[in-house]
Amino acid sequence: MKNNRYLVTFFVTLCTCLLPTISKAQFNENGLVIRSGINFQYSPQDSPYTLPDNIGHESENFTYYFTPGIGKFIGNGFYIGLEGRIGSSSRSMTAMVNGDVTHHSKYQNLIYGGGVLLRKYFNVSDRFTPFVGLSNTFFKEKGDEKSPNGFRSYHYNNFTADIQLGAQYRISPRIGIEAYFTPGGLLVSKDKNASHKADISPNFGESGQHFSFGINYFLGGK
């Protein structure tokens, strides 16, 4: 969590230093922007609880999804667009006693959905433009859990509001490449097979961190 605070503090400080020199910059983008990216997360985790020395609990999470989208600059570096989310995630959990595995389960699920992407770009140069963004996405997770007790199907409806800290580099008038880091955001999750209400919680740290790389195609480029 401290590393996240340091990263956010550094980025905010950088933008604050740059704002006096770029506040008058205008984006002269025309036409639509077609986006295509891949987002991924990997997080090995130990048990959040204090366990006896002879008992171990480990889990691994891996998530990836593609983010096709389309949008438009609306002036002064502000961008608004639609974005899809299509991918998969897997999670394995292992429990051990005295070094022997006593339980092992694995989750595999499909992710699909979409939402709205809002960004503010800072025009540092003709090619390099840092940005801050907010991705508001509704998506479903459907899959199965495989364990010694058999299979269990599950189905979640999720909503996330994720922060993006990144930059774009224009390699030509029509094409730009981008990368960003998501330290986390807000997660609302509802199990369709359960009667309890949706869980609403901040999602920062290991479970909320994502990295993304993408390509932007400017239809209005010359």
Write structural notes for this entry.
It comes from Echinicola vietnamensis (strain DSM 17526 / LMG 23754 / KMM 6221). Keywords: Signal. InterPro entries: OMP/PagP_B-barrel. The protein has 222 residues and is mainly beta. It has a single domain, classed as Porin, CATH 2.40.160. Helix content is 9%, strand content 66%. It has one helix and eleven strands; from the N terminus they run αβββββββββββ. The protein has one helix at residues 2-22; strands spanning 33-46, 55-66, 69-75, 78-97, 100-121, 128-147, 150-170, 175-182, 184-191, 199-204, 210-218. Strands 1, 2, 3, 4, 5, 6, 7, 8, 9, 10 and 11 form an eleven-stranded antiparallel sheet that branches. A hairpin with a 4-residue loop joins strand 7 (150-170) and strand 8 (175-182). It is elongated and about 60 Å long. It starts with a helix and ends with a strand. Residues 1-26 and 47-51 have low confidence and may be disordered.
